[in-house]
């Protein structure tokens, strides 16, 4: 390693990363907990103000959801943190993370526990408040380096990643413009393995409007929305294969046994492996809606989108992975990777044409459950990996 890299790694030793994780994870910041997100945004504003540049809390873009009765209603989100540093520097990067968790305000998993095995169990410790501590500490080490003047960057921490980044997608796309590379701080696996290629995702709500009637006296005059929704589910499930998985997840609707149900909402998740799979999925949706509406004499409205495109490992991403691996080897780390069906903001960044490694956060596991844990020793380890990677990009001008 160069002297600048060794100096940066040495500076990580006294950083209060664990203190940050413990304090931040004690705040419930489930995506729908606006008060908790506001508290979390304030804590992050205080912490990230240690970096130079212009920091702002950006209002969320409008977003909506389909209720069980078929109404489309607006959804409120928390504000997103955006920090811009040296926007005219010759080398520009993007660093992203999220402040929200999957645990709502009334979830029983609220406590942070330090364990004797060197882990911390708590909501968001791995996903991704540990990652935010790693990001901040790595950037502070970079700022103390003589190479800092070559590097301009933006830090984006959104409040809605866990539900699809619907109110921050445009902000991500804008922040990605002109960047040579991006790092996102989702957790690595417990053994340090990174996520490589990712599939995409699309979530749809199909609103079926039939006609009510008495189930015994005149059922033929009714149009059963539940039956139509079930037919839709079967047709869409049959579209799986060739890099596309389909999960009809829920049907809302129905009522008393003696009434032909006039309303139903089918919720479906699609996981396309590539852009061709998205095209096939969209064609399947369009065809099923047309055929079921005609055959059941109902009206169907489709709401939703493929909000996270697939993220292949292209030449730019391959170069960035190679650089991260090189930095890891120089730090005594073996950095592996594997493809995953999970999605994150790395999908959105890659769709903007920017190479991204999106699991630069802590090592941990059991995320999205009450067993979620972070490995404490991975805090300085992963901060060092980030700092060396960033400094090499600053020096070379590219991954």
UniProtKB/TrEMBL annotation:
Signal peptide: none
Gene Ontology molecular function: any one: hydrolase activity
Active site: 100, 161
Pfam family, one: M20_dimer
Coiled coil: none
InterPro entries in the record: Bact_exopeptidase_dim_dom (IPR036264), Pept_M20_glutamate_carboxypep (IPR017150), Peptidase_M20 (IPR002933), Peptidase_M20_dimer (IPR011650), Peptidase_M20A (IPR050072)
Keyword annotations: Hydrolase, Metal-binding
Ranges for domain Peptidase M20 dimerisation: 198-295
PANTHER family xrefs: ACETYLORNITHINE DEACETYLASE, BLL0789 PROTEIN
Protein name (database record): Peptidase M20 dimerisation domain-containing protein
Phylogenetic placement of the source organism: Bacteria, Pseudomonadati, Pseudomonadota, Alphaproteobacteria, Sphingomonadales
């Amino acid at each position: 390693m160069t002297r600048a890299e060794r100096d940066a790694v040495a500076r990580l030793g006294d950083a209060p990363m664990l203190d940050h994780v413990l304090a931040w994870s004690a705040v419930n910041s489930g995506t729908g907990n606006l008060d908790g997100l506001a508290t979390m945004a304030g804590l992050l504003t205080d912490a990230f103000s240690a970096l130079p540049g212009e920091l702002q809390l950006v209002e969320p873009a409008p977003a909506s959801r389909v209720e069980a009765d078929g109404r489309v209603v607006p959804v409120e989100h928390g504000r997103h943190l955006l920090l811009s540093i040296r926007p005219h520097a010759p080398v520009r990067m993007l660093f992203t993370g999220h402040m929200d968790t999957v645990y709502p305000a009334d979830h029983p998993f609220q406590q942070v526990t330090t364990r004797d095995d060197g882990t911390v169990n708590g909501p968001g410790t791995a996903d991704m408040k540990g990652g935010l501590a790693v990001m901040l500490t790595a950037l502070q080490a970079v700022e103390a380096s003589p190479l800092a003047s070559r590097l301009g960057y933006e830090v984006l921490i959104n409040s809605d990643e866990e539900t699809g980044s619907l109110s921050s997608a445009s902000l991500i796309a804008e922040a990605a413009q002109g960047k040579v590379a991006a790092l996102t701080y989702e957790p690595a696996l417990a053994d340090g393995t990174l996520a490589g290629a990712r599939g995409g995702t699309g979530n749809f709500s199909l609103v079926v409007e039939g006609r009510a009637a008495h189930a015994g006296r005149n059922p033929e005059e009714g149009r059963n929305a539940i039956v139509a929704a079930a037919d839709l589910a079967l047709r869409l499930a049959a579209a799986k294969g060739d890099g596309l998985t389909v999960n009809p997840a829920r049907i809302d609707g129905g009522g008393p046994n003696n009434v032909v149900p006039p309303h139903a909402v089918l919720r479906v998740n699609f996981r396309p492996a590539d852009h061709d799979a998205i095209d096939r999925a969209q064609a399947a949706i369009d065809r099923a809606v047309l055929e079921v509406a005609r055959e059941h004499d109902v009206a169907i409205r489709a709401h939703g989108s493929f909000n996270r495109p697939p993220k292949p490992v292209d030449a730019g991403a391959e170069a960035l992975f190679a650089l991260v691996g090189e930095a890891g080897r120089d730090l005594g780390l073996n950095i592996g990777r594997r493809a995953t069906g999970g999605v994150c903001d790395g999908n959105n960044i890659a769709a903007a044409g920017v190479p991204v490694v999106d699991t630069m956060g802590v090592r941990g596991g059991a995320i999205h459950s009450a067993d979620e844990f972070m490995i404490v020793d991975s805090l300085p380890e992963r901060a060092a990996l980030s700092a060396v990677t960033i400094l090499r990009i600053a020096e070379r001008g590219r991954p």
